[in-house]
Sequence to fold (112 residues):
Amino acid sequence: EVQLVESGGGLVQAGGSLRLSCAASGFTFDDYGIGWFRQAPGKEREGVSCISSSDGRTYYADSVKGRFTITSDNAKNTLYLQMNSLKPEDTAVYYCNALSKWGQGTQVTVSS
Fold:
């Protein structure tokens, strides 16, 4: 069974940083792409970043380019999202996704 467990969210001031983690199990991590999505109140879920675990190619939404960095540790089956220079508009529940499965999400709140 595929399981994804996010952690690392919290409350931070604008300009601050957080690192999110997504611990994955139930599949071979380096065979699939995996990514981060977010959903702000009243808005649709949107893609933030994804990575090909086999070759490390990455994708970033324009809104986070240059501020967020996605990495994966295939030995630990864990995905990370380093978020720097956070803005109030980054406030959302952040989810990781692989094989069409979702984790429970972790709340990120950025105060102005």
Summary: The mean pLDDT is 94. The CA atoms of residues 32 and 79 lie 12 Å apart.
